[in-house]
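notes to self, project folder thing:

trying the whole complex as one job this time. last attempt i did each chain seperately and stitching them together was a nightmare. two parts in total, labels are on each line so i dont mix them up again. if this works i'll redo the older ones the same way
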Amino acid sequence: MTEAATTSPTASAPEAIPMSIVGHLIAVVLLLAFPFVATDFFTFQIGAYTLIMGTISLSLMLLAGYGGMVSLAQMSVAGLAGYMIAIFGTSAGGVALGWPWFLAIPAAVIIGTLLNVVVGLLAIRTEGIFTIVITLAIATALYYFAQQNYDIFNGHSGFSGVAPAHVLWVDWRAPKPFYFLSLAVAALSYAGVLYLSRTPFGLAMQAVRDNPRRMEAIGFNVPAHRIAAYAVAGLIASVAGVLLVWFDGGISPGSISVDRAIKVLIIAVVGGMRHPAGPFLGAILFVLLQNFAIDFVNPERFNTYIGLAFLLVVLVSPDGLLGLIRRLGAAPASGKSLP
Amino acid sequence: MILARRTTLALLLASSALLGYGTAMAADDTIKIGGLATLEGPFTVLGEDGMRGVELAIQQHKGMAGGKKIELVKGSSDASPDSAVKAVRKLVENDGLTLIIGPLSGDEGLAVKDYAKTQPKVTFVNGTSAAQDTTLRDPAPNFFRFTTDGAQWMAGLGTYAFNDKHYKKVATVAEDYSFPYTQVFGFMAEYCKAGGHVVSKSWVPIGNKDYSSVIAAIPADVDAVYVALGGADGVNFLSQYQQAGGTAPLIGGSITADQTVLGSKGATKKAVVGMPSAGPIADAWDNPKWKQFVADYKAAFPKGFPSPSLFAHGYYVSTIALLTALDQVNGDVSDGGAKLRDALAKLELDTPTGKVKLDANRNAVADIFLTEVSEGADGNLYNKVIKVVPQVNQTLGQDPAEFLKLGKVGRDNPACP
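result (full assembly):
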């Protein structure tokens, strides 16, 4: 993912192939080779989890980076899709309808996407900090609802024993298959967002971010564009949510708490919100710190150090790790436009 | 140039991925033990006290077991099941540990038990998680619980409330998650059998501030109110119940009558005097071994609690159990821990709170303390020990088949209106 940082063709480079393609190729090779050199633990808990969290943050980056709408409800969307997998599919705890995977997955993704459309319908009436507040309110409400609803969400305990079906004789929960599944979802989402940002819709979205009144005046349907962006972000977050429930093997209200919603925002901010590669960079740092900070510092205070590390990144580089790498790596080719 | 930098970064990432191999190898003369507690989230304070229990046990064993040096590797969760599994998975799969102590909270225990089944060569010793089904139904062969469960902690209370206190009808107020369900279950298992009736049950979210609707729902003619609320929740309920004019006497869960409640003043103080409760420890127990434990705890952790919490005690007992078993097998875990697990299963332990042994499901059979809040000579409240219920097993002395028929612990089970 790191190599995807620069996507604008570097004019100063003499090669016939643009740097962005070289960068992406290196990233693809590294990501494909990763599970073959890493331990199962690194493949599953670091690699796959990074890709899943990166994808959820990517959905926030799409809204915030291209649409100027910071939504804290993305984790709730992912969580709802995860809950639906547990409810429609096979799980222990509460109701489990036992649908086959080819019905349960689309149903979960559709419900997650619809939730984000509803969030969008409410949130687009607001701007800036009010969007954050209203989406935070939705995330909090859903958390408490899941916590106290026993008929559908099974309350505090939630669901356990959720695993992907064995399709094509492959155990998709095993480290390597699960990693590649996550990689496929992450890569598709990444490519999709990158592609979308250059389509007329994506460009209009960015124009709406910069000046909604003007776009309204020249005849663009601003609310429709924003809701469409919420729908796409909902789709991405929902698919990642399906992976997340498989990763955890279950889901409980803790998985969609406000705390987790803010972590998604932190990942996006620390990684950088100006390019789809940012959330994945942020996720690498986040997951590594979350797993290993406790080994290097006082276990009672390790969260303080995680916080300080994030603070340091944002202080040094306001546009996150992405900006840092861009500045370090592309210093000669400065002044290049953003995607 | 750009490419070179990128390649370096990529190599760095790749090499960090290989780190996992290196740490998995431990020196032959040390044994690493993973300690998992809630060092973050709502139960941080309790998790830290649990860790103190682990450290005290290792300290008392002089840092050695079976002739090998003991090294503690800490893991942290935030009381949610997925965070506990992530932390344990890191300790087991990345750090290469085969001995784990933890977790602290009920739902975490259920999740870690499920994970334990996928790691048959790793030995798990419970911290203080007290959900019943961690060991009662579908247990994992490599998961051991030397601390009793939340229902066992209630042993003697139901009978005492009915026979000695003559409460015929009670209402319950408890937090809405698996541990309080288990506590209410344990209380009712005895109380209903003795002939009592539980006419209403209220479940409140953790951290609830406003209890007016809950208090309004308590029938006026109950003889007592059973309260299983922890920390600030307990204090909030008790003071609001007094303000609302509630006069019914109280019965407490294992973590209700803690130092925050005992430190209360005014009307609340009067109301809690005489409140019976039960649990795995009793602060004021007049017993040399217990007093020694409290003194050791205070000496080792001047900044800890005034008296060890049941979390420090639970983790302490679990760690002592593991270290004793390691002594018995001379620190030999080269066979995937099979011998160690045999030793653990047969272990009979002398703890600060009496004798502990395991049943067939590897769940503890231990003494439980029936206490009552009393006013001391100095005017301060303390938990007076009424009696020690000896060797309580997981089925609370009932026939196992009959006990299992009571069904799974839940909001609506059991019922005796």
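what i see at first glance: Residues 38-256 of chain A form one domain.
need to look closer tmrw
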